[in-house]
Structures are given as C-alpha cells and as structure tokens.
UniProtKB/TrEMBL annotation:
Residues 16-70 form the HTH cro/C1-type domain. Pfam families: Cupin_2, HTH_3. InterPro entries: Cro/C1-type_HTH, Cupin_2, Lambda_DNA-bd_dom_sf, RmlC-like_jellyroll, RmlC_Cupin_sf, TransReg_Diox_bact_type. GO terms for cellular component: cytosol. CDD domains: cupin_XRE_C, HTH_XRE. It comes from Brevibacterium linens. Keywords: DNA-binding. This is Transcriptional regulator, XRE family with cupin 2 sensor.
C-alpha cells in the first residue's frame, strides 16, 4: 500500500507535468518561471520530492492555475448503473441513457437501438455544438438532411450538432453507441 504522503507527492507531480505539457512548456522553461532548478522540478514531477508551499505557489503562478487545483485530493465520482435511468421516448425500439457528465455543456448519452429501429428526429443543438459518435456494437446510420452515413462497431465520427439529424439501425441485430455532445 502506498503511503498517503507519497501518493500526494505523486499526484501533485503528475498534475504539474500534465499542466506543463498542456501549456507546451519544457522542464527548463517551467523551472525558470517558477524559480526552481531543473533537477528539483524533475524530482517534483516524478513525485520523488515534496515541495514547500512557496514553491507550490510559484509553480501554480507559472502554470496559470490555482494552487488548490494542484493540491486537491484526486476525486472519482461513481454513478452505479441502476441509478442511471433508461428512457424509451426517443422512438420505438430506441433506448437512451443520459450519463453523468464531467463538464458543464457536455452531454454523454448511451443509445441502444433494436433491429430495424430509428430515433425520432433530433432538433438541432445550440449553435457551434459538435457531436462525437462511437459505435459500441452493430451498425448505426447517422441521418441528416442530405446524407446517410453508416458506422460499424469501433467506428467514430464527429459532426456538427447544430443541424437536425437522427439515428437508425437498418440491420437485424441490436446496435449500441455512445454520443458525446459538446
């Protein structure tokens, strides 16, 4: 079992590294901005060295994030399957589950379509929205005004969400997909 203080240093270091890479900074660039040596920053990122509050504050300023974001305990939110309601109001043979989302203005939806079924038409989402479709099982058609696009198990497609569309399963086997709307 990893000691809690060791876990804290590893989480803090991993967050520093992730933010550094997100900001496209080299180890040297961040070290200079934060007033640390390259060697010390490297040890902090690997979770091999605890750091002082003043160094944590310097790193947070250099990365442009609140120090609390870097120090917060890792949080995993679990929603058990039986707590996620299933709705069938989106077409005969269509089952939809709205999954909890990690972000505001992001919807994550699981669809199951019975053989030869289709959803009712979806109204366009907010202007500029995007959708990502990932087929978990079977084949799905994305139907828009001007085309039908077929996706098979493992396929992923991205499309504008601000146009009317619907989903269809033209086959004799059930199909499932995940839909993420941003």
């Amino acid at each position: 079992m990893v000691k809690e203080e060791d876990l804290g240093a590893r989480v803090f270091g991993a967050r520093i590294r992730a933010r550094r890479k997100f900001n496209n900074l080299t180890l040297n660039e961040l070290a200079v901005r934060a007033g640390l040596s390259r060697a010390a920053l490297s040890k902090i990122e690997r979770g091999e060295q605890d750091t002082s509050v003043s160094n944590a504050m310097g790193l947070s300023r250099a990365l442009g994030v609140d120090v609390g974001e870097l120090l917060a305990a890792p949080e995993v939110t679990i929603t058990r399957s039986d707590a996620i309601p299933t709705s069938s109001t989106f077409g005969k043979g269509v089952w939809r589950r709205d999954l909890p989302s990690a972000f505001e203005n992001m919807d994550v939806v699981h669809y199951r379509l019975d053989p030869r079924s289709e959803t009712s038409a979806f109204a366009a989402h907010r202007s500029g929205s995007r959708e990502s479709f990932f087929v978990l099982k079977g084949s799905i058609e994305i139907v828009t005004i001007d085309r039908r696009t077929t996706l098979h198990t493992g396929d992923c497609a991205q499309a504008p969400g601000d146009v009317p569309h619907q989903l269809a399963n033209p086959n004799d086997e059930p199909a499932e997909l995940m839909l993420i709307i941003i």
